[in-house]
Amino acid sequence: MSDNTMTVYGHVGTEVDFRESNAFCWAMFRVGSTPRYFDRKQGIWRDLETVWITVKATRTLAENVKASLTVGEPVVVIGRIRTHTWQDPTTRETQRRDVLEATAVCHDLNRGTTTFRRNEQPAATEATASEGEVVRAFEASQGEQAPTTGESRQPVSA
């Protein structure tokens, strides 16, 4: 079975709701998309009814969405439509909502500019040996003497 993807162009309509639970994170927000058409009889643009779509992002995408998006910004969202079902605790009725599970979210560059910044890689812990320490340990196990900083490598004669 293959998944169909959907692309939505619109504006961020709500603040990003970011949540974490057991080292898993997700972000949800709404995108409003208003189709327009040109009315030739009156010579003006007309807006149709705004379509509101709930978007859900997970993991790293969720963290980046939280850090990057604010209400009103133009976005492009690509994802898969899923139906989320839950039971309302007060009325005990089953609730359903279609959600666009995002695989990509970006600013719409037809409407403005943005600056890209890579995610930072986690820093190495102190317990991790440096490259130089690994090389010296390997050479010591092979019977060679590891050079110290500033010295050139000299083969050890047997």
Provide structural commentary.
Residues 142-158 have a biased composition (Polar residues). GO terms for molecular function: single-stranded DNA binding. The protein has 158 residues and is mostly beta strands. The chain has one domain (6-117): Nucleic acid-binding proteins (OB fold (Dihydrolipoamide Acetyltransferase, E2P), Beta Barrel), CATH 2.40.50. It has two helices and eight strands; from the N terminus they run ββββββαββα. The protein has helices spanning 59-68, 131-141, and strands at 6-12, 17-21, 24-33, 36-39, 44-47, 51-58, 74-87, 94-107. The strands form two sheets. A five-stranded mixed beta barrel has the order 1-3-6-8-7. A two-stranded antiparallel sheet has the order 4-5. Strand 4 and strand 5 (44-47) form a beta hairpin. Mean pLDDT is 83; it is low at 144-156.
Q: Return residue spans where pLDDT drops below 50 for at least 5 consecutive residues.
A: 144-156
Give me the CATH architecture, please.
Beta Barrel
Query: Total number of helical segments?
Result: 2
Instruction: Tell me the overall shape.
Output: extended
The count of β-strands is 8
Query: Major sheet: size, sense and barrel closure?
Result: 5 strands, mixed, barrel
Overall tally of domains: 1
**Roughly what percent helix?**
10-25%
Order of helices and strands: EEEEEEHEEH
* Structural class based on helices, strands and sheet pairing: mainly beta
- What is the class in the CATH system? Mainly Beta
**Per CATH, what is the topology?**
OB fold (Dihydrolipoamide Acetyltransferase, E2P)
Widest sheet: strand ordering: 1-3-6-8-7
Protein name: Single-strand DNA-binding protein
Pfam families: SSB (PF00436)
InterPro entries: NA-bd_OB-fold (IPR012340), Primosome_PriB/ssb (IPR000424)
GO molecular function, one term: single-stranded DNA binding
